[in-house]
Amino acid sequence: QKQLVQSLNSQLSTDNFRTNVEHLSSYYTRYYTTRAGVQAAEWIYDTLNTYKGARTDIEIQFFNSTWAQPSVIARFIGTVSTDVVILGCHLDSVHLGGIGRAPGVDDDGSGVVTNLDIFRVLASNNFKPNRTLEIHFYSAEEVGLLGSREIAQSYLTQGKNVVGMLQLDMTFFHN
Q1: What value does the mean pLDDT take over residues 134-146?
Q2: Residues 118-154, buried b or exposed e (16+ Cβ, 10 A)?
Q3: Which residue has the higher pLDDT, 22 or 2?
Q4: Containing H/E element for 98?
Q5: CA nearest neighbour of 135 among 156, 153, 125, 121
Protein backbone atom coordinates (compact mmCIF):
# COMPACT_ATOMS: atom_id res chain seq x y z
CA GLN A 1 0.00 0.00 0.00
CA LYS A 2 2.91 2.35 0.59
CA GLN A 3 3.75 2.26 -3.13
CA LEU A 4 0.11 2.99 -4.05
CA VAL A 5 -0.04 5.96 -1.68
CA GLN A 6 3.27 7.31 -2.98
CA SER A 7 2.15 7.01 -6.61
CA LEU A 8 -1.14 8.79 -5.87
CA ASN A 9 0.59 11.43 -3.74
CA SER A 10 2.90 12.28 -6.62
CA GLN A 11 -0.18 13.16 -8.72
CA LEU A 12 -1.33 15.94 -6.40
CA SER A 13 -0.87 19.22 -8.23
CA THR A 14 0.34 22.50 -6.75
CA ASP A 15 -0.91 24.12 -9.96
CA ASN A 16 -4.42 22.83 -9.15
CA PHE A 17 -4.05 24.04 -5.55
CA ARG A 18 -3.11 27.51 -6.81
CA THR A 19 -5.83 27.73 -9.47
CA ASN A 20 -8.53 26.46 -7.14
CA VAL A 21 -7.55 28.62 -4.16
CA GLU A 22 -7.39 31.68 -6.40
CA HIS A 23 -10.93 30.98 -7.55
CA LEU A 24 -12.21 30.17 -4.07
CA SER A 25 -10.67 33.29 -2.55
CA SER A 26 -12.13 35.47 -5.31
CA TYR A 27 -15.50 35.40 -3.52
CA TYR A 28 -15.86 38.53 -1.40
CA THR A 29 -16.76 36.22 1.48
CA ARG A 30 -17.90 32.63 1.90
CA TYR A 31 -19.92 33.48 5.00
CA TYR A 32 -22.65 30.89 5.49
CA THR A 33 -25.63 33.28 5.16
CA THR A 34 -24.47 35.07 1.99
CA ARG A 35 -25.18 34.50 -1.70
CA ALA A 36 -21.41 34.33 -2.29
CA GLY A 37 -21.21 31.58 0.33
CA VAL A 38 -23.84 29.61 -1.58
CA GLN A 39 -22.01 30.24 -4.87
CA ALA A 40 -18.79 28.88 -3.35
CA ALA A 41 -20.61 25.68 -2.33
CA GLU A 42 -22.05 25.39 -5.84
CA TRP A 43 -18.59 25.84 -7.36
CA ILE A 44 -17.19 23.06 -5.13
CA TYR A 45 -20.10 20.80 -6.14
CA ASP A 46 -19.53 21.55 -9.84
CA THR A 47 -15.76 21.03 -9.54
CA LEU A 48 -16.28 17.66 -7.87
CA ASN A 49 -18.66 16.61 -10.64
CA THR A 50 -16.12 17.66 -13.27
CA TYR A 51 -13.41 15.61 -11.54
CA LYS A 52 -15.80 12.66 -11.14
CA GLY A 53 -16.30 12.44 -14.88
CA ALA A 54 -18.49 9.57 -16.05
CA ARG A 55 -17.98 7.45 -12.92
CA THR A 56 -21.31 6.19 -11.61
CA ASP A 57 -19.88 4.73 -8.40
CA ILE A 58 -19.18 8.18 -6.93
CA GLU A 59 -21.94 10.30 -5.40
CA ILE A 60 -21.83 14.08 -5.00
CA GLN A 61 -24.56 15.77 -2.97
CA PHE A 62 -25.53 18.90 -1.13
CA PHE A 63 -26.42 18.61 2.55
CA ASN A 64 -28.93 21.39 3.17
CA SER A 65 -29.53 23.07 6.50
CA THR A 66 -31.68 25.91 7.77
CA TRP A 67 -29.13 28.52 6.62
CA ALA A 68 -28.36 29.47 3.03
CA GLN A 69 -25.04 27.72 2.41
CA PRO A 70 -25.19 23.93 2.01
CA SER A 71 -22.42 21.54 2.92
CA VAL A 72 -21.13 19.35 0.09
CA ILE A 73 -20.39 15.62 0.36
CA ALA A 74 -18.45 13.49 -2.14
CA ARG A 75 -18.78 9.74 -1.59
CA PHE A 76 -16.75 6.79 -2.89
CA ILE A 77 -18.98 3.80 -2.13
CA GLY A 78 -17.22 1.03 -0.22
CA THR A 79 -16.85 -2.29 -2.01
CA VAL A 80 -16.65 -4.45 1.14
CA SER A 81 -18.11 -2.51 4.07
CA THR A 82 -20.65 0.21 4.81
CA ASP A 83 -18.29 1.69 7.44
CA VAL A 84 -17.49 5.32 6.67
CA VAL A 85 -14.14 7.14 6.70
CA ILE A 86 -14.32 10.94 6.35
CA LEU A 87 -11.89 13.59 5.14
CA GLY A 88 -13.29 16.97 6.16
CA CYS A 89 -12.73 20.69 5.68
CA HIS A 90 -14.94 23.75 5.86
CA LEU A 91 -15.96 25.87 2.93
CA ASP A 92 -17.14 28.96 4.80
CA SER A 93 -15.03 31.97 5.76
CA VAL A 94 -15.59 34.77 8.21
CA HIS A 95 -14.30 38.32 8.66
CA LEU A 96 -13.09 39.09 12.16
CA GLY A 97 -15.77 41.33 13.58
CA GLY A 98 -18.60 40.41 11.22
CA ILE A 99 -19.39 40.34 7.54
CA GLY A 100 -16.64 41.88 5.43
CA ARG A 101 -14.03 40.80 2.89
CA ALA A 102 -13.04 37.28 3.93
CA PRO A 103 -11.11 35.42 1.21
CA GLY A 104 -10.24 32.60 3.62
CA VAL A 105 -7.20 31.42 1.66
CA ASP A 106 -5.72 29.45 4.54
CA ASP A 107 -8.78 29.12 6.80
CA ASP A 108 -10.02 27.07 5.16
CA GLY A 109 -9.56 27.52 1.44
CA SER A 110 -6.40 25.47 1.86
CA GLY A 111 -8.31 22.50 3.29
CA VAL A 112 -10.92 22.78 0.53
CA VAL A 113 -8.39 22.74 -2.31
CA THR A 114 -6.40 19.96 -0.65
CA ASN A 115 -9.53 17.81 -0.45
CA LEU A 116 -10.55 18.76 -4.00
CA ASP A 117 -7.20 17.56 -5.34
CA ILE A 118 -7.27 14.38 -3.24
CA PHE A 119 -10.70 13.70 -4.75
CA ARG A 120 -9.42 14.45 -8.28
CA VAL A 121 -6.51 12.02 -7.92
CA LEU A 122 -8.63 9.25 -6.40
CA ALA A 123 -11.40 9.63 -8.99
CA SER A 124 -9.00 9.70 -11.94
CA ASN A 125 -7.24 6.55 -10.71
CA ASN A 126 -10.45 4.53 -10.44
CA PHE A 127 -10.12 4.36 -6.63
CA LYS A 128 -12.56 1.87 -5.12
CA PRO A 129 -12.22 1.71 -1.32
CA ASN A 130 -13.12 -1.24 0.87
CA ARG A 131 -14.89 1.15 3.25
CA THR A 132 -16.94 4.10 2.06
CA LEU A 133 -14.78 7.23 1.82
CA GLU A 134 -16.54 10.55 2.11
CA ILE A 135 -15.03 13.98 1.60
CA HIS A 136 -17.00 16.66 3.44
CA PHE A 137 -16.97 20.39 2.76
CA TYR A 138 -18.79 21.84 5.77
CA SER A 139 -20.79 25.05 5.84
CA ALA A 140 -21.17 27.28 8.90
CA GLU A 141 -18.11 25.98 10.74
CA GLU A 142 -16.71 29.40 11.62
CA VAL A 143 -19.82 30.19 13.67
CA GLY A 144 -19.79 27.13 15.92
CA LEU A 145 -19.19 23.97 13.85
CA LEU A 146 -22.83 23.98 12.73
CA GLY A 147 -22.46 22.14 9.41
CA SER A 148 -20.43 19.23 10.74
CA ARG A 149 -22.70 18.98 13.79
CA GLU A 150 -25.80 18.63 11.60
CA ILE A 151 -24.18 15.97 9.44
CA ALA A 152 -22.91 14.08 12.50
CA GLN A 153 -26.40 14.16 14.03
CA SER A 154 -27.90 12.93 10.76
CA TYR A 155 -25.40 10.06 10.58
CA LEU A 156 -26.11 9.11 14.20
CA THR A 157 -29.85 9.06 13.49
CA GLN A 158 -29.26 6.93 10.36
CA GLY A 159 -27.00 4.53 12.29
CA LYS A 160 -23.98 5.13 10.03
CA ASN A 161 -20.77 3.66 11.44
CA VAL A 162 -18.07 6.33 11.09
CA VAL A 163 -14.74 4.62 11.87
CA GLY A 164 -12.36 7.49 11.12
CA MET A 165 -12.28 11.20 10.41
CA LEU A 166 -9.46 13.57 9.46
CA GLN A 167 -10.18 17.31 9.38
CA LEU A 168 -7.96 19.29 7.00
CA ASP A 169 -7.97 22.88 8.18
CA MET A 170 -5.31 25.50 7.43
CA THR A 171 -3.11 23.09 5.47
CA PHE A 172 -1.16 25.98 3.92
CA PHE A 173 -0.06 27.28 7.33
CA HIS A 174 3.72 27.08 7.38
CA ASN A 175 4.57 27.49 11.07
Answers
A1: 92
A2: bbbbbbeeebeeebbbbbbbbbbbbeeebbbebbbee
A3: 22
A4: none
A5: 121
